[in-house]
Amino acid sequence: MNRNTLHKLLQEVRSRKLSPDEAVQRLRHLPFEDLGFAKLDHHRALRHGMPEVIFSQGKTAAQVAKIFSHLASHHPESNILATRATEEQFRAVSAEVPQAEYRALARCITLRRDHSPGSRNRSQRGQRRTQGTIAVVSAGTSDIPIAEEAVITAELMGNHVESLYDVGVAGIHRLLAHRSVLAKARVIIVCAGMEGALPSVVGGLVGVPVVAVPTSVGYGASFDGLAALLGMLNSCASNVSVVNIDNGFGAAYVASLINQSAR
């Protein structure tokens, strides 16, 4: 259920193509649907422009498949995303929704309804219009899985995305060689482990919001991303904000909301 779908439903009632009882039947799961083990927030698409995203970690394959299939059927024109998913969970999902795809590097299951060229950055099928490019930057190759989670999330939310990988501070010339990518971005997501210095460097080069993602990459004293998290929280670049460790999804969601134009 998104804005366009709700508007169409009300128009059908107004024109008497649909009875009020039939409309109520269609809206029976608004704002949420109780599956027993999960309550699906179907109202979220109205608020944010995208259906609820499934966090698959800790769920059984059957649970992920049931949630995914119910979201897919309830939001027939929307993209569906499940993060932190395993291949076993994907097999269960694909049995219910054969069009679903698995992005192994990012550990994401996706169902993309919109494949038309150039549609990522314009209003379509109830998605909110986006104004510019989201750049996703990773400090090292080991940070790419988290960066890819951000890329997939941002794309499914209707954004044009450009990625720039392995440009960390240990070889800063690699980043500076791609200043043009940073210069044209409206929002930049920076994923970095180790000491987490890259977001501050990027923040000092641009005048747009930078969403920093600490990753659990590094030797023992990195404490599974805690050192990078603390470093990013203490950034002296005033345009840098920080999400949780390894939270590429959360970074992309926030970046997409920033990138949405007023309707």
Mind telling me the C-alpha Rg?
Answer: 20 Å
Shape: globular
Class of the largest domain, according to the CATH hierarchy?
Alpha Beta
Largest sheet: 5 strands, parallel
> What separation lies between the terminal Cα atoms?
18 Å
What are the low-pLDDT stretches, counting only 5+ consecutive residues below 50?
116-127
Oligomer: single chain
Strand content: 15-25%
User: In total, how many domains does the architecture comprise?
Assistant: 2
Query: Architecture of the largest domain, CATH level 2?
Result: 3-Layer(aba) Sandwich
Helix/sheet category: alpha/beta
Protein traits:
263 residues, Rossmann fold, 11 strands, 2 domains, 11 helices, alpha/beta, single chain
